[in-house]
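Consider the record:
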Amino acid sequence: MELATARVNKPRDAYPWRLVATALSFALFGVGSLCLRVLVFPLLACLPGGVERHQQRARRTIGWLFWRFIRFMRVSGVLTYEVVGAEGLGRPGQLIIANHPSLIDVVFLIGLARNANCVVKQSLFDNPFTRGPVREARYIGNDGSVQMLETAADTLRQGQPLIIFPEGTRTPPGQAPAFHRGAAAIALRGAKIITPVTISVSPSTLTKHEPWYRIPRRRVHFRLHVGADIDPASFAALGPAPVASRRLNDYLHQYFIKELAEDERSTARPAP
């Protein structure tokens, strides 16, 4: 399945309006997060079911709202997007691995895989706007500990899909992604399948340390491509855990470098 919106490449592409629409988008995200914490989640807690059922409701609610947020940004002219292979996301025990060029990559992926768990920055648990959603959904804080790795692996063994960004932070513009070995270690400990998702953003926006109001001169286009599944068992058979983890991490790193380079070449080609 492919989800796509038209790409626009005018020289300034309604710059003043896009700046206003970007501000509205950030305001909407902040207010929506507070409403989830104060109004929506307390109401969901009144519904029947235990902790696991409440967690599932919270994740699906967040995912549904995240995708509506993406569509709002599209309709308001902030961005366009293209998603190839979305139907491959959200399967039991699936580790979804993605590169991280922009602030809203996680919004796209949670919006597409609404039942998934996610490894997120530890600071989100202390942020007044985000701590409600990440706690209610029981997302996993990336504190860099061995316990975090085991918690993530246990999530996969329980049959939950899991989203992770092996870089741990956003990729600087113009640089290739640099993967830490934690994602590979989690995959070997608990994943049934690994599914890579390459994310391309043209022109780059919302990178690390870049303020929200520094928008590009052209409308941003996001492209998410869901790749073929990778069997972690084929790497686990290569040797002891540290060796297998290193080889899997190297494979993933090279895979993403190759796929992102191909995406860049495709974007640079003139339209027929």
Notes: The beta strands are 2-4, 79-84, 94-98, 117-121, 140-142, 162-164, 193-202, 220-226. DSSP finds eight helices and eight strands in the chain. The domain at 13-266 is CATH 3.40.1130 (Glycerol-3-phosphate (1)-acyltransferase). The mean pLDDT is 91.
